[in-house]
Amino acid sequence: MSDLFGFTRDVIQERYALRTPSGFVPSNIPGWRDATVIVQISEGMGARFCQLLVTFQEDGEGAGSTGLLEFFVYLLAGACQANIQGKKHKLESGEYIYLPPGHDFHFERPAVGTQLLIFQKRFEPMVVKASSTPYIVGHEKNVPGKPFLGNEDARLQVLLPDKPEFDMAVNIFTYQPGATLPFVESHIMEHGLLMLKGQGIYRLDSDWHPVQAGDVIWMAPYCPQWFVAMGKTPASYIYYKDVNRAPL
Ligand code: UGY
Ligand code: MN
């Protein structure tokens, strides 16, 4: 990585964005205290969802209600406690919570440096059936990685139930070095992505970008996309997509 003055790998385009930790600037977000909050992706970029990275200091906390939004909260590192609708959950790295709209939450008692990755979006109820989605607490280690389109070297962990009530999916994709997405995808779904491990090359629209752990990517609907993992260790990323609703 170059330390050259005035250099960045960050790129904000109309159909995609690549953001790297060296350019992150914290925001003050109501409800979050003694925590550094980075808004990684939001409407200001053109996205229809928000991706936040929260890093807790000592005695940090985050409290509020999801309101009209739904939240997917993934513990990237550390440990904390989550009080959801008055029920307490102890969370460790790799665990996640899905919160439907209208749920009270309070994340507290973090180990210093605990990091949360949060995807937030306005919930779109199904037209014929009101949502009865419960809140969900899970751990990525209990979700098997299945070969993606038959490729044993590219494995997908699907963290939320694949059911029509859910209008959001969050998956972890892990690639052995040299493994790729099988074709250049172009689809109606939008993505918010955080590189968790390793490195590779992401094709975004008609550009190619080297990426590594810590990098953030937003892909607009229909943005052509492709990935190859490179280096000596597997590459993985966690990503959001909108699913199961009819297009306008
Ligand atoms: O779920 C997906 O659309 C996934 N295959 N896309 C991606 O990894 N860029
Ligand atoms: Mn995709």
Ions, cofactors and other ligands present here are: (2S)-amino(carbamoylamino)ethanoic acid, manganese (II) ion
What class, by secondary structure content? Answer: mainly beta
**How many domains?**
2
Oligomer: single chain
* Number of separate strands: 20
Distance between the termini: 42 Å
Which topology of the largest domain does CATH recognise?
Jelly Rolls
Helix tally? Answer: 0
- Per the principal axes of the C-alpha atoms, what is the gross shape? globular
Task: Give me a quick take on this structure.
The protein is mainly β and 248 residues long. Helix content is 0%, strand content 53%.
How would you explain this protein's 3D organization?
This protein has 248 residues and is mainly beta. It folds into 2 domains: 114 residues, Sandwich (Jelly Rolls), CATH 2.60.120.10; 101 residues, Jelly Rolls (Sandwich), CATH 2.60.120. The protein is 0% helix and 53% strand. It contains no helices and 20 strands. The strands form 3 sheets. Strands 3, 4, 5, 6, 7, 8, 9, 10 and 11 form a 9-stranded antiparallel sheet that branches. Strands 1-2-18-15-20-14-13-12 form an 8-stranded antiparallel sheet, with no helix packed on it. Strands 17-16-19 form a 3-stranded antiparallel sheet, with no helix packed on it. The termini are far apart. 31% of the residues are buried. The mean pLDDT is 96. The site of manganese (II) ion (MN) has 4 residues, from loops.
Give short descriptive properties of this protein:
Jelly Rolls, binds (2S)-amino(carbamoylamino)ethanoic acid, eight-stranded antiparallel β-sheet, binds manganese (II) ion, 248 residues, 2 domains, mainly beta
